From TrEMBL:
<comment type="similarity">
    <text>Belongs to the group II decarboxylase family.</text>
</comment>
<dbReference type="GO" id="GO:0008483">
    <property type="term" value="F:transaminase activity"/>
</dbReference>
<keyword id="KW-0210">Decarboxylase</keyword>
<dbReference type="InterPro" id="IPR021115">
    <property type="entry name" value="Pyridoxal-P_BS"/>
</dbReference>
<feature type="modified residue" description="N6-(pyridoxal phosphate)lysine">
    <location>
        <position position="295"/>
    </location>
</feature>
<keyword id="KW-0456">Lyase</keyword>
<dbReference type="InterPro" id="IPR002129">
    <property type="entry name" value="PyrdxlP-dep_de-COase"/>
</dbReference>
<keyword id="KW-0663">Pyridoxal phosphate</keyword>
<dbReference type="GO" id="GO:0004058">
    <property type="term" value="F:aromatic-L-amino-acid decarboxylase activity"/>
</dbReference>
<dbReference type="InterPro" id="IPR015424">
    <property type="entry name" value="PyrdxlP-dep_Trfase"/>
</dbReference>
<dbReference type="InterPro" id="IPR015421">
    <property type="entry name" value="PyrdxlP-dep_Trfase_major"/>
</dbReference>
<dbReference type="GO" id="GO:0030170">
    <property type="term" value="F:pyridoxal phosphate binding"/>
</dbReference>
<keyword id="KW-0808">Transferase</keyword>
<protein>
    <submittedName>
        <fullName>Aspartate aminotransferase family protein</fullName>
    </submittedName>
</protein>
<dbReference type="Pfam" id="PF00282">
    <property type="entry name" value="Pyridoxal_deC"/>
</dbReference>
<keyword id="KW-0032">Aminotransferase</keyword>
<feature type="region of interest" description="Disordered">
    <location>
        <begin position="34"/>
        <end position="53"/>
    </location>
</feature>
Length: 466
């Protein structure tokens, strides 16, 4: 064994303690650190010929790279839809690396059984029935990709074609309908060979809504003259957290032949709140469902789940035909359910967080985030230089400048907030207007954090008017 590696092995408990101490300091200081770092990153160095050992590597990382890492796990990082990592989830994630289980197979380890238990808990959490089976994937984009790959196979069955064998070209043109699809949907369509151009946006409801007009969706389906299609419904749009009427869309299946995919990447967590659970009514009728756990479940990247009612299609698309892997009989191994052959035990951080805090603990996170989003929205509505672009429906505040909201001025406002070190927001474009959006999904975020965000946005807006 290489002497440096042997020395690290002999001192492994000490090295893990050093890493623990460093991580604990970083986490303890996260609320005081600038939310994003604007300094130039270090220049890359050549690959070292002689290694420095784990302690030396930690020292080099702490000196060179750690200062430039963003506080994405902190309470005022409101960009994209980014959760943090609960203490229990971090515990589970560390153990995931320590055990280093390949969760793709079920032989010789209880890892796959733990994943199935976690999937059962999540299915219950989101109001899905026993007909839905699931598998962990890397994120919402991969979850949407898997769901649309299954939809592609289902379309092939309707035409007497096994697309997984014959290829997407044998399927011919496909109709994919959606009101306000997330950008990951056309990306997924590109990956599965359906093509970005096959996505047709259906008119949404009036008065600033992002939810699809179900009557117009029915018209679009009627115009297909019986051709089977794919409908992508939204349980929480990215700009305003608007929800399609999932029950009404599912009812259209009585008249039209389509696969219903529900993108519930973060909006699915509305099911935890009695006040908002009605927004996810009808999700159980979906053929496939996307839920992203490193958003509102607050587990570390990367973790999402793909649920489907059609496991037989999932096995057909993703099975790995190799003698050493075995056949996907009975309860198929996860190697036959996702694009990956090898996969880390992403379920363990989720298992830890659900076991530690239960439904009620995660409900409290959701409801507190929603309350803080409302507080920020109310505060922004009182700032003369700002205006809300949409009601605060759940956990996202979408706003813009009250005057000339050009792309340059709005993006400058976002940069000014980021450069203050107080908060991070992401830009967007809604109904022809450039805007910023603040997404509350971090388990740490408190009223004091919301006040600091509002103060930073107010200062930056005032400076932009000066």
């Amino acid at each position: 064994m290489h002497p440096v590696l042997a020395d690290d092995l002999s001192r492994l408990p000490e090295l893990l303690q050093s890493a623990r101490d460093f991580a604990a300091r970083e986490v303890a200081e996260i609320e005081a650190r600038p939310v994003v770092q604007r300094d130039k990153a270090p220049d890359p160095r050549p690959l070292p010929t002689e290694g420095a050992g784990a302690q030396g590597a930690l020292s080099r990382f702490a000196a060179s790279w750690a200062p430039g890492f963003a506080a994405t796990a902190g309470p005022r990082y409101l960009g994209f839809v980014t959760g943090g990592a609960t203490p229990a989830a971090v515990t589970g994630d560390w153990l995931t690396s320590a055990y280093d289980q390949n969760a793709a197979g079920g032989d010789g380890s209880s890892a796959a059984a733990l994943e199935r238990e976690t999937l059962g808990w999540l299915r219950e959490l989101f109001g899905l029935g026993e007909a839905h089976s699931g598998a962990f994937v890397t994120g919402a984009t991969m979850s949407n990709t898997v769901g649309l790959a299954l939809a592609r196979e289902w379309l092939g069955d309707r035409r007497g074609i096994r697309v997984s064998e014959a290829g997407a070209a044998a399927l011919g043109p496909v109709d994919v309908l959606s009101g306000s699809p997330h950008s990951s949907i056309p990306k997924a369509l590109s990956v599965v060979g359906i093509g970005r151009d096959r996505l047709r946006t259906v008119p949404v409801l009036p008065s600033g809504r992002e939810a699809v007009d179900v009557a117009r969706l029915a018209e679009a389906l009627e115009a297909l003259d019986g051709r089977p299609a794919v409908v992508v419904a939204n349980a929480g749009t990215v700009n305003t957290v608007d929800f399609d009427d999932l029950r009404a869309i599912a009812a259209l299946k009585e008249r039209y032949d389509f696969w219903l995919h529900v993108d519930a990447a973060f909006g699915g967590f509305a099911a935890l709140s009695p006040e908002h659970a009605h927004l996810t009514d009808g999700i159980d009728a979906a053929d496939s469902v996307c839920v992203d756990l490193h958003k509102w479940l607050n587990v570390p990247y990367d973790a999402a789940v793909q649920f489907t009612r059609h496991r037989e299609l999932q096995v057909r698309v993703f099975h790995n035909a190799s003698p050493y892997l075995g056949l996907p009989t009975g309860e198929p191994d996860f190697v036959h359910l996702t694009p990956e052959n090898s996969r880390r035990l992403r379920a363990l951080p989720a298992w830890f967080s659900l076991a530690a805090y239960g439904r009620e603990g995660h409900r409290e996170i959701v409801e507190r985030n929603v309350a803080e989003a409302r507080r920020l929205g109310e505060g922004i509505a009182r700032v003369p230089g700002l205006r809300l672009l949409a009601p605060v429906r759940l956990n996202v505040v979408c706003f813009t400048l009250a005057g000339s909201a050009t792309e340059e001025r709005v993006h400058a406002l976002g940069r000014a907030v980021a450069e203050s070190g107080e908060a991070f927001l992401t830009p967007t474009f809604l109904d022809g207007t450039h805007a910023l959006r603040a997404a509350f999904s971090n388990w740490r975020t408190s009223g004091a954090d919301t006040d600091r965000v509002l103060a930073a946005v107010t200062r930056a807006a005032g400076e932009s008017e000066a």
